[in-house]
Amino acid sequence: GDIEKGKKIFVTKCAQCHTVEAGGKHKVGPNLHGLIGRKTGQAPGFTYTDANKSKGITWGPDTLDEYLTNPKKYIPGTKMVFAGLKKKAERADLIAYLQ
Question: Could you report the per-residue pLDDT of 41-55, keeping only the tens digit for each?
Answer without folding.
Answer: 999 999 999 999 999
